[in-house]
Write a structure and sequence with these properties.
Low-confidence stretches: none
Mean pLDDT: 93
Number of strands: 0
Shape: globular
Oligomer: single chain
Number of helices: 4
Largest sheet: none
Number of domains: 1
Strand content: under 5%
Radius of gyration: 12 Å
Order of helices and strands: HHHH
Structural class: mainly alpha
Helix content: 55-70%
Length: 83
């Protein structure tokens, strides 16, 4: 399985804990598009991929950057917990 195949599983897991799907879904779908475009065969979340994704964009506000990075951190925790 590819890393992005676990996104829907994480969203369902977070919902089961009482979190709103909207808290994570937009950011994770953007991350999935990034992976499909740049790392289509990615089966492991690496430091390099995370650092590339977590670069603050020129048009991005600090609050959006923190949220995007936070969602990726939660996704990495989820992946670690299921392995």
């Amino acid at each position: 399985m590819k890393i992005y195949d676990f996104i829907e599983d994480m969203l369902r897991y977070k919902e089961s804990l009482g979190y709103s799907r909207n808290s994570y879904e937009k950011f994770l779908q953007n991350f999935k598009r990034f992976l499909v475009a740049d790392y289509p065969e990615c089966k492991m979340l690496t430091k390099e991929i995370m650092l590339e994704w977590c670069q603050m964009r020129k048009t991005e506000k600090a609050s959006s950057f923190r949220k995007r990075a936070s969602v990726l951190r939660e996704f990495s925790k989820y992946l670690f917990s299921i392995k």
